[in-house]
Design goal:
It is an enzyme of class 5 (isomerase). With 351 residues, the protein is an alpha+beta fold. Helix content is 18%, strand content 25%.
């Protein structure tokens, strides 16, 4: 159905643009047609699927009343008002009040303790509720930096420490430190099975061809170098099976690296919904294990050279309540450690 614009009160004959209110009068050739089809003819630069979303969101009025159904019929002479809505991609760098915990801050650096469930970068399903959006809200000056100063990331359900640059020079320094592998990143993980006392996992990682949500070691196609150092801190028994508390040091920062490397040893992370970490059929009713709905992984320690002072700095974050309850139940502790448990586990010996 080909329609025509009788008038557009903002700019006659023009399509709506973002953050604009546009109004159209339905012509006789559109009489009785579907609302979404009429809008597609009136606003050819906007996709029909996007227009349908605007209708469902209440951004389209017909004769001053919200139109909620895309199949509603329009009549000749109806006035359609459209409030153009930003795309998800445009929301990605929008400031939003997304709370986060600040561990340390000065003129060059911001160290945050990311909670489990918080996505770091905007993407499908999380366009404006991420750490990046929260940083732009709390520190508007970060809008001048690439990725709002973020130089590394944690998986959505991994908790713990991250560093954010507040100046371009600091960001350049941190990126170089990450590339040279001089940034100390220590993670605590609970694994299903008996982990070795210490080991170096040096196996390249690529996307799993059988499941686009997973990564795997030594898969055909594009792979990237990945190195994880692992040291066992303690072990416990649950339901007749061994659970190992390990400390991991990253030499590279690949997506899901610790999760993939540990699974490759037959030691998936406890609670991991993607890499065979489910608790069933273990006895769990009435225990903290029953409430653990994510991988037991926490970025506990972060160390780096301050970009401006040259001073070596280090921070520690205890595990959050859900993980702490599980570790207490298993008899692991103390959880507030003044020194690196990775180094303690090795007893000062090199891995």
């Amino acid at each position: 159905m080909k329609g025509s614009v009788d008038y557009n009160r903002d700019n006659p004959g023009a399509d709506a643009t973002e953050d604009s209110l546009s109004e159209f009068v339905v012509g006789p050739e559109m009489n009785g047609g579907r609302l979404d089809k009429a809008l597609a003819a009136l606003m050819p630069s906007v996709s029909r699927s996007r227009l349908q979303c605007w209708i469902r969101e209440g951004a389209v009025l017909v004769n001053g009343r919200p139109a909620r159904r895309v199949r509603d019929a329009v009549l000749s002479g109806d006035v359609i008002s459209v409030s153009a809505q930003p795309t998800p991609e445009e929301l990605a760098f929008t400031a939003r009040d997304v709370p986060f915990e600040t561990v340390y801050e000065d003129e060059a650096l911001l160290v945050v303790n990311k909670r489990a469930g918080l996505v770091v970068h905007p993407g499908a399903g999380h366009w404006d509720d991420t750490l990046l959006n929260g940083l732009l809200f709390a520190r508007p000056a970060l809008a001048a930096l690439p990725r709002a100063g973020i130089v590394h990331r944690l998986d959505r359900d991994t908790s713990g420490l991250m560093v954010v640059a507040k100046t371009l020079s600091a960001q350049t320094s941190l990126v170089r430190q990450l590339q040279s592998r001089s940034v100390k990143r220590e993670y605590w993980a609970l694994l299903r099975g008996q982990a070795p006392a210490s080991t170096l996992i040096d196996r390249p990682i690529g996307r799993d061809p059988r499941n686009p949500l997973r990564f795997a070691v030594e898969v055909p196609g594009s792979m990237r170098e990945a190195r994880t150092r692992l040291a066992t801190v303690n072990r416990a028994s649950c339901g007749g099976r061994v659970i190992s508390w390990v400390a991991c040091r990253l030499e590279t920062g690949r997506t899901h690296q610790i999760r993939v490397h540990c699974e490759s040893l037959g030691l998936p992370l406890l609670g991991d919904p993607v890499y065979r970490g489910g608790l069933a059929p273990w006895p769990q009713d009435g225990t903290p294990l029953a409430g653990m709905k994510r991988q037991c992984l926490h970025a506990s320690r972060l160390g780096l050279v301050h970009p401006e002072t040259g001073q070596r700095m280090e921070w520690f974050a205890s595990p959050p309540q859900d993980l702490a309850r599980v570790m207490d139940f298993l008899g692991f502790g103390p959880l507030d450690r003044p020194v690196s448990v990775f180094e303690e586990a090795l007893g000062g010996k090199p891995l």
